[in-house]
């Protein structure tokens, strides 16, 4: 017989999921009601309004897809891309590669714009790609690369798309709620995110928003969207503006309670305050890590405050350190991904997990574990440096 | 400012979501851990084992898809069907139509076998369809039609598929946990279900299982699966037998805590006992409804105990009755769907909601509301009839 599962209380400072607030967990376990209940329909409207606030958009089609961020990505591609299309895809980490897969599975051609991992997407290279491929109808890129911790310039890239009569698809999985994101002002057309990063919510839902131009393209498609589950023409009947709330699929009711609560919390704090908190804790963490003698993998001007890629010092066993942090300190940090596997750690300071307490706990634990491994680090300097930064 | 959302405590006796046990809601809100945490990997193995038990299968590829049942359906179709294929699709309710949509979006041809709504799938018609279409490589049908409450013969239909060298795709969204389902013994190849019906779990996850023959077809595909998110060749790297637990997407960690707990509860009760409970409460409900003067929409031999389609008596306002049940009794029952909209109600007795308490509460509430509407019903007879049936 299998017994009930009781997870330990970890501190989640990896690339996501991040720590979920007790308020959100409390909302999650409220009694389930039906997905067509009038009170649930009211909740849906509130979620749409709150998502419009965090995305900084007035897009009518702003909803949570009932599946993780990867499905949100797929929702953007299968709805906007048709067979035979040309899509410029920027790759400066793992997730650009996943975008390429999506484009090709839609029967379209991906023109790849490659940048080194840890670098932002090069606006000049994208400009050159549009010049070489005037037929390109879509530009796709990642705002905050979760695999490297680098930030790209959404405003400049979306302006380039517009200037070339293309629509933009923007991955904001790790950016939403953690750094500035202005969907309308920057002119992004199809934007997807995840709940398990800076929204401090449980994993499993993907907020998306589509501009009027994106909706127009969806409505004028000649080729049916290849996914029934993600077909926005159908989903709009349940979630869309002026929708009749026609049954499409059973909404993940409790997960949406949790998303609602996490968005209410973000609204209470205020977006700008949340961004400032992410930045403050990031600076303290970096001050501590550098005082310890560690170095950051991404240049200062491109760093994401919510995802800190740290170079693994020579002679240190990557997996052993992460395992010791988990076993002895209940602290999860992330491994490097793809080209950076074994070379970096990814320390997340996302949402509820972006706190002074976590910065200090992480520095303490890391210093202890690296010390045990005999790494060439400076001891006793990290905490004072972080605290000084927090005071300053 | 938007405030926190506090749902009322409804009794969910519609077509799903059904009532979620407090034990499951408790598990749902336990602290989130990472999707690559060794303890989470252990949980994943336990979920696979428990799903093998409820599906009655030894299939290695038996996993929860990270999205609702509609995505589980799509996972079966996009992995098993390739462009140019011929698929025999049985339609005796809403969900056969959705299967047709899936087939066509895969670039394949759907040969429709139609039966009246409320009737089971005709084995003879399927046999004729195979004779007329020897090129058909897949047969798809619904075990328990949620839109009508009728049960079809999985064993006979899967045997027909096998005899014609075709694989079978079986929708068990409403059957799993509520009535007998023997995946291996009956020879079903790709089977999907949902968490929000007879598993008494929250909505949002879709258990699926693939036979060795189905896995072989997936591994030998020449055309890439059109969905990256649902591509079982990739998902197997995280969930599959002997998987390296390679990151594919972020698993919905808390939802899987809930699924695990609901499966543990089902294992504790025992599948046969759960089936017997569903049948006992169904018979009591029917006895009460008939004593009240109402009639069932499906012939006795094809009825699903977990989903009771009741003919709406003449002169009664469908929507008003359902609204009064919800407002005055916090009781949700389901409307008719598709061809049965306005003609039937669907009263669910699924999972945790299949209880004596709910049978009696539903009969009491329905009698009160129908009485107020001046419907021609017999009053005072329903409860004694239901209780007599429960005692017998």
Automatic annotation (TrEMBL), chains A, B:
Cofactors required: pyridoxal 5'-phosphate
Kindly list the GO molecular function terms attached to this UniProt entry.
Answer: alanine-glyoxylate transaminase activity; L-serine-pyruvate transaminase activity
Residues recorded with modification N6-(pyridoxal phosphate)lysine: 197
Where substrate binds, per the record, is at: 346
Q: Where is this region: Disordered?
A: 1-20
The family database entries (Pfam families) matched by this protein are listed as: Aminotran_5
User: What keywords does the record list, in alphabetical order?
Assistant: Aminotransferase, Pyridoxal phosphate, Transferase
- Provide a GO biological process annotation: glycine biosynthetic process, by transamination of glyoxylate
Source domain of life:
Bacteria
Aminotransferase class V domain residues are 33-337
Entry similarity comment: Belongs to the class-V pyridoxal-phosphate-dependent aminotransferase family.
Q: What is this protein called?
A: Alanine--glyoxylate aminotransferase family protein
Tell me which species this is from.
Halioglobus japonicus
